[in-house]
Task: structure prediction
Amino acid sequence: MEEEPESFQTDDDFVWICQYCGVKNSVWVDLTVDGKQDFVEDCRICCRPNRIIVTKDIENNAFAESRPLDE
Result:
């Protein structure tokens, strides 16, 4: 019996917390992009811009963090 090839996830929704009002937000991320992704998303409640940084570890697990835009 042949083994199924390991599936590769190409996209995902990540939850991030607004650095200004503390509300949880989500953003779709394309996981086929190599390296760090760094972009700006507005909070769905207070509309303030947050810097979202998506990185991958050695095992290709992706993580998202939010920072104030003026940092």
